[in-house]
Amino acid sequence: MKTLALLFAALVLPLLSAYSQNPNGFTSSSTVIQEDATTYYIGAEAYLYPTISENGDVLALADLSFTLPPNGTIKALQGTLTFKAPINAGDATCQAASLAMLMVDGKVLPIITKLNNGGRESNRWISYTVPLRYTAGSARLHVQADGCPSTWEFQGVLEIVLPRKATTAVK
């Protein structure tokens, strides 16, 4: 019985501690930084611990909100995406998937990552160059994942185009 208690303390308690110390969401160092008038750096990492929702889905959610200047157009989103699951390398049976979305005023650029065939990690280059016009500039990076505990990270650049300011002719 003492051996069982020691085994529980050695194996289960650290996992429970990890869940309580790393709630779902983006880390405090996740950020969106304006680098110049039209370029934004996005550095975001989320810890995702799926739980059962009210409707029975097993999902983890994370949101990172930021604001872009009004009346612009997203010209490009480029960067590296890493999705790793499970966090615990010993859980080889886990199959996980993530859906991420860069949303601006309700318009969406989707990013889907799936791990299958025993895969534990996916590293991808993401590149969107289709213009996406927006008005208010209310933006959010949203990530949701199912399966087992995972991490999701994006390091990249968002480029926008702003309307030209009207000039008046000098007489």
Topology of this protein?
Layout: H1 2-21, E1 25-26, E2 31-34, E3 39-48, E4 51-52, E5 58-67, E6 73-84, E7 96-104, E8 107-115, E9 121-128, E10 132-133, E11 138-146, E12 150-161
Antiparallel strand pairs: 1-3, 2-3, 3-12, 4-5, 5-11, 6-9, 6-10, 6-12, 7-8, 7-11
Question: What are the main properties of this structure?
Answer:
171 residues, mainly beta, Jelly Rolls, 7-stranded antiparallel beta sheet, 5-stranded antiparallel beta sheet, 1 helix, 12% helix
Question: How does this structure look, described?
Answer:
There is one protein chain. By secondary structure, this protein is mainly beta. The chain has one domain (22-161): Jelly Rolls, CATH 2.60.120. The chain has one helix at residues 2-21, and strands at residues 25-26, 31-34, 39-48, 51-52, 58-67, 73-84, 96-104, 107-115, 121-128, 132-133, 138-146, 150-161. The strands form 2 sheets. Strands 1, 2, 3, 6, 9, 10 and 12 form a 7-stranded antiparallel beta sheet that branches. Strands 4-5-11-7-8 form a 5-stranded antiparallel beta sheet, with no helix packed on it. The longest helix has 20 residues, at 2-21. Mean pLDDT is 81; it is low at 4-22.
